[in-house]
Predict the 3D structure of the following.
Amino acid sequence: MSALACGAACVAPALAEVAVPDTITCVYCDGSGEVTCAYCDGNGAVECNYCDGTGKITCTFCNGTGRIRCAECFGKGYLYNGGDRVKCPTCKGAGSFPCDYCVDGKMFCEVCRGSGERTCIVCDGYGSVQCAVCKGTGKMKLK
Ligand SMILES: [Zn+2]
Ligand SMILES: [Zn+2]
Ligand SMILES: [Zn+2]
Ligand SMILES: [Zn+2]
Ligand SMILES: [Zn+2]
């Protein structure tokens, strides 16, 4: 009968107070207080979205063709002079001029200075950012 008399008290878990710390190491940043910048993947730089990382953009003056159409003859290379078809004196019959603003229709990307990359605006080039969960302390409060 003694086993039964013991009853619930015997199976109840020990309720002795275990010292529970009020903070633990932040699981999100592993206690470092910093996490890899998700925006740049830790590189500190991101591909320039203006030039798609190429460092060059399509020339806005010639639309990437590398040639500017002659305004005098509308690109035809010739003009009508009283019914006579004459070679356009402005473009000398070519109908267009090489574009002065680009090389082969490509302009230097001013946004990234031609590097194709921009400093990550989220982490300011550090590659890591303060852990938002622990606010950079590396600790999490237990509730
Ligand atoms: Zn151009
Ligand atoms: Zn012309
Ligand atoms: Zn660029
Ligand atoms: Zn970043
Ligand atoms: Zn953290």
User: Anything to note?
Assistant: Residues 48, 50-51, 55, 109, 111-112, 116 surround zinc ion (ligand 3) (CB under 6 Å).
